[in-house]
Structures are given as structure tokens and as C-alpha cells.
Design goal:
11 helices; 284 residues; globular
């Protein structure tokens, strides 16, 4: 089927009390792994590309790969820009066929974040394109975006209500204790804060930096009201580790298919596991 707007997937997830997995892609094999996992689990899925992925693979390649994968798939697939930081970048993705964009204005003051988000939404919404925004700062590193631990500010529930009302965004990423990249310890999520946000905001909520968060914690966040969960680091870990094993077993191996094939299979299994955790299996 054709690519679908992410909003459709999130509203269904919100109603059904499960979450849609949003998985970052960087190359053809990871796109294939995401689709293979979604097909095996009969789950809707979001394929997302960060600034780094777009710079590495090229926006035309990412769009073409994902469109082809979706057209040959029996599950609904959305193509999403992860952590866009400018109006221009979001518009580039709109022009290239993305069905969803994230404008991350979280580094700005509240009113400036609102103004930037509204500017993107005013163009994207008439085209049927989903808009995600972020309020509060999520720790760690996402490509070139760095937030020091001392500056990782949690989302204020009242500000979330005001922001959602003013911008009319389709999805809101909230900071409740997750971080991008690999965790040094076990993260502790602020579920009480999340409950307060859910009580004040009807917009589907997004949990970023979810690799390394215990499955039980993710499921509790979903039970409270999270409708989209982002996963990147766990995919990279599985992919690279499988490739390393092939090369460790035979240092003379020169066939990239024999290196990247097992890496793709390892990524597929990790994504399938996450889909089951999120409760979206059989929801396609």
C-alpha cells in the first residue's frame, strides 16, 4: 500500500491503548528489516530518518526505498522526519514525499518554539502531512543535537497543554526521563508527570530515546497514554554486532551480502521484539 500519514496510525494507537514503533533507518538493509518485522508482526510502523541519515544516504534514496517498501507491504507505513530543526528542512521532506515531519524547536523559548511549529503546520496540514513537535529537552545526543544532562528539562504539563492548543500539532514528544543514545544506567521515567500531561493534553504523545528503557517501563508509559515510541540505538547495536561476528569468524570475507545479510536479520529480530512490547502486533 502507499505511504500513509503518521497521524492515522497514532490516533488508532491512542484509541487502542498501544503504541506504534518508530524505527530509524540509515540504509537499505535497515529499511528492509523494519518492513520485514512489521510484516511478520502484522503491525503498523513508522520508518523515520534523522538529519544524519538524510546526510548519509540522501533524501531521494531514503524516500524511494521507503516508498517501494510500503508499496510492496500489506501493513500501513508512514515516513517521518526525526528531529528536524528548521522550517527549510521540514519543507525539503514535504517536497520529497515524507508523510510526517518533526520540527524540534525544544531548544528555543516556549513562544519561539510555538511560532516555528505553527509555521511548519500551516504548510504541512493542508497537504495532509502529520506534524510532530517537542516540548522539554531529552538528554543525550541525536546526531548533531546535544543536550547536556544538567540542561535536560522535563516537560511541564501546563506548558504542554498550552503548546498543544496553540500549535494544533498531531503528535507531541515529551521529556519524562528518557535520553538519546546508550544509557549509562537504568533510566527512571517520571510516570506521575506523564499522567498529568495526559490529563491535560489530547494530542498523541511520543516517547523518544527509548532504546535501553526496560520493557516494563515502556509498557507502563503506553498504558498511561504514549502512542508512539522511538527506537534507534538498539537497532544499530544489533546490526553492527552481527556484522562484527561475521568478520570475526572470517577476517578475509569480502562479500558485503554475507556481512550485511546477518546484520539485517539481527535488526529484524530486535524490531519484532519491540513491536511486541509496544502492543501493536496484529493491529495492521
Amino acid at each position: 500500500m502507499s505511504l500513509v500519514p503518521m497521524k492515522e496510525l497514532l490516533l488508532a494507537a491512542q484509541k487502542g491503548r498501544y503504541a506504534v514503533g518508530a524505527f530509524n533507518c540509515n540504509n537499505m538493509e535497515i529499511v528492509q528489516a523494519i518492513i520485514a518485522a512489521a510484516e511478520a508482526e502484522k503491525s503498523p510502523v513508522v520508518i523515520q530518518a534523522s538529519q544524519g541519515a538524510i546526510k548519509y544516504a540522501g533524501i531521494a534514496y531514503i524516500t524511494a526505498l521507503t516508498k517501494l517498501a510500503a508499496e510492496n507491504s500489506s501493513v500501513p507505513v508512514a515516513l517521518h522526519l526525526d528531529h528536524g530543526t528548521s522550517f527549510e528542512q521540514c519543507m525539503s521532506c514535504v517536497r520529497n514525499g515524507f508523510t510526517s515531519v518533526m520540527i524540534d524547536g525544544s531548544k528555543h523559548a516556549l513562544e519561539d518554539n510555538i511560532a516555528l511549529t505553527k509555521k511548519v503546520a500551516e504548510v504541512a496540514h493542508p497537504l495532509g502531512i502529520t506534524v510532530e513537535a517537542e516540548l522539554g529537552k531529552i538528554g543525550g545526543t541525536e546526531d548533531d543535537i546535544k543536550v547536556e544532562e544538567w540542561d535536560a528539562l522535563f516537560t511541564d504539563p501546563d506548558e504542554a497543554a498550552y503548546f498543544s492548543r496553540e500549535t494544533q500539532v498531531d503528535a507531541l514528544a515529551v521529556a519524562i526521563g528518557t535520553a538519546h543514545g546508550q544509557y549509562k544506567g537504568v533510566p527512571k521515567l517520571d510516570f506521575a508527570r506523564l499522567q498529568k500531561i495526559v490529563a491535560k493534553v489530547s494530542t498523541p504523545l511520543v516517547l523518544h530515546g527509548s532504546s535501553g528503557v526496560p520493557s516494563e517501563a515502556i509498557q507502563e508509559a503506553i498504558a498511561i497514554g504514549v502512542a508512539k515510541v522511538n527506537i534507534d540505538t538498539n537497532i544499530r547495536e544489533a546490526f553492527v554486532e552481527a556484522a562484527r561476528k561475521v568478520l570475526a569468524a572470517d577476517a578475509k570475507e569480502i562479500d558485503p551480502r554475507k556481512v550485511l545479510g546477518p546484520a539485517r536479520e539481527a535488526a529484524t529480530e530486535v524490531i519484532r521484539e519491540k513491536i511486541r512490547v509496544f502492543g501493536s502486533s496484529g493491529k495492521a
